[in-house]
Amino acid sequence: MDAVAKRAGVGRATLYRNFDDINALTSAIFEENILALEAAIDREGASPGAFERVLWLTVDEGLRFRALIPALAMRAQSPEVGALVVRVTRPLSAALKVAQKQGEVRGDLTARDVVPLLAMVFSTVLTELDAKDLRARARRSLGLVFDGIRPR
Q1: For a tag on the chain, would you pick the N or C end, based on fewer CB atoms within 10 A?
Q2: How many domains does the chain have?
């Protein structure tokens, strides 16, 4: 939390006044990411390539807060994180069904498959210290995922 406060340019007291601990902070940020995902899905609708663009956006959003992903992963089995995963799975499921109907992704893919695929993409950049290369590495990983989920 000290490092977060320093990086955000606020005092520790300000940070703790808004968030009890790192868990509360990561949950709030993940909530913000879910809202961005839901808005992107609403914006994209059923346009061709919408599912792919939504996943790219999800990765880009996650990269902005990648330093907090390990804290979130450490609580992966908690009820709070479980509820957040359910929230992210719902909009992904709707977008996925549209993409499947349009023949853009495999018919056997489920939203429950997509969440761990995204986690795999993020895992490729979590240990990287060289920030200038992160987006390219994540995009390459997500490109490989797309190669696997497109219909053959």
Answers
A1: C
A2: 1
Beta-carbon contacts of residue 94 (< 8 Å; ≥ 6 apart): 41
* pLDDT over 90, % of the chain: 24
**31-40: Cβ within 8 A, 24+ apart:** 31/84, 33/58, 33/61, 33/62, 33/65, 33/88, 34/84, 34/87, 34/88, 34/91, 36/61, 37/61, 37/88, 37/91, 37/92, 38/91
CA distance 150 to 28: 33
Q: Is residue 56 part of a domain?
A: yes
Q: Which domain holds residue 72?
A: 21-149
- Taking Cα atoms as reference points, which of 36, 83, 57 lies closest to residue 138? 57
How far apart, in whole angstroms, are the C-alpha atoms of residue 113 and residue 71?
Answer: 22
- The CATH number covering residue 101 comes to 1.10.357.10
Least confident of 4-8, 93-97, 142-146: 4-8
Handedness of CA 75, 80, 85, 86 (dihedral sign): positive
